[in-house]
Write a structure and sequence with these properties.
The structure is a single chain. The protein has 370 residues and is mainly α. The chain is built from 17 helices and 2 strands.
């Protein structure tokens, strides 16, 4: 059973078996008991009429618990009538104003179905998916019941919706929280696969971050050990191959980096390339590593003759030192003594403090100053 189907089943059972509200003196209007009338209308499928009756019960209720029950009944009826936005408003009012008196499991069931309506587009006439609102509703479920039966599913759906919104960093946090707080939840295998997938996306966006790839590989290995017969085994194998290609690519990069003339360290290059071949020999990068190693082996051995420091300095060309102009330096010292720590004014910057290139001696000419 899928996550969304499980949530929908919870709503169906809720709609078929509405919680019985207790008697309240304000609900007896003449010979009519509003609670019985609302339940009867709900059973007949007259959800909008039931919602109006529950709204009247909320106005006439004399106890906070009664008002809270009536508001949830009104929201449930509106939800059954597919009036999603009004249902959301009434759920919000119940949670904000009567949170202490609510039937929390019943409220969370309704909020879960409402969240899916927004996530899938059912709440929109044009089937527009309102993922951010769905995330907000699931977060409200977690706030109302952080360790309740809907908490693992809510975290998983939040992670999925954040993935769809391309917010992979937040998605990884949601999946990690699920695995940390609910390690025995039935949704854990799917969450572990989802986390590995998100981590590989983040690694690809961050130029193959090795820490993220290693974490993804760890979760994939654990998935394979704990759930060898899971339907996601093929997906896990594909993700593992991707993780190995990332790791192999990074080792190939290090081998190539230490083969460059500016960073030439053949021993380090050989070490990384050999590690690539030993650990990830079945990846495409292994071919490149083999070619790179053959090239390193074809190089002549390094010369043992060393150059003395005097020879090294004598062979290098350096810029001529700047010529000393006593008048310029005296003017600078006088200006500094006069101004102290004062801020340099705009009109003084060019004339006194910024020197032309010739004053730096970089062009071989004498410094001049007008």
């Amino acid at each position: 059973m899928t996550v969304m189907a499980a949530v929908s089943c919870g709503m169906l059972s809720m709609a078929q078996d509405q919680a019985t509200v207790g008697d309240d003196l304000g609900w007896q209007v003449g010979k009519t008991n509003l609670a019985e009338k609302a339940a009867s209308l709900q059973a007949q499928g007259s959800h909008r009429a039931a919602a109006r009756t529950y709204a009247k019960m909320a106005r006439l209720g004399t106890r906070n618990t009664s008002v809270a029950q009536a508001l949830v009944g009104q929201a449930d009826s509106l939800l059954a009538a597919r009036s999603y936005h009004r249902a959301y408003s009434v759920y919000q009012r119940a949670a904000d104003d009567y949170g202490r008196y609510l039937d929390v499991p019943r409220l969370c069931d309704g909020l879960g179905v409402l969240a899916e309506a927004y996530a899938t587009g059912k709440a929109s006439r044009v089937r527009l998916r309102h993922r951010s609102r769905a995330v907000t509703i699931y977060e409200q479920i977690l706030k109302l019941s952080p360790a309740g039966p809907m908490a693992p599913t809510s975290l998983y759906r939040i992670g999925q919706l954040q993935e769809e919104l391309d917010d992979y960093d937040l998605a990884s946090r949601s999946y990690r929280q699920l695995l940390r707080d609910f390690p025995s939840a039935p949704i854990v295998p799917e969450a572990r696969l989802a986390l590995a997938r998100v981590l590989l996306v983040l690694a690809d966006q961050g130029d193959s971050n090795r820490r993220l790839v290693a974490e993804a590989r760890w979760h994939l290995d654990r998935f394979g050990k704990e759930h060898p017969d899971h339907e996601g085994t093929a997906t896990a194998a594909q993700l593992s191959l991707t993780a190995d290609e990332y790791q192999a690519g990074y080792l190939a990069y290090l081998g190539e980096f230490y083969s460059r003339p500016a960073h030439f360290r053949p021993a380090a290059a050989r070490r990384y390339l050999a590690q690539l071949l030993a650990t990830y020999g079945d990846t495409p990068a292994a071919t490149q590593a083999t070619t790179q190693l053959a090239w390193l082996d074809s190089l002549p051995p390094p010369s043992t003759q060393t150059e003395t420091a005097e020879e090294m300095l004598a062979g290098r060309k350096e810029l001529p030192p700047p010529e000393y102009d006593a008048r310029v330096w005296q003017e600078l010292e006088d200006a500094e003594l006069q101004r102290g720590d004062a801020i340099i004014q705009e009109q003084e910057r060019v004339g006194k403090w910024l020197l032309p290139i010739g004053d730096l001696g970089l062009d071989g000419r004498s410094a001049t100053r007008e």
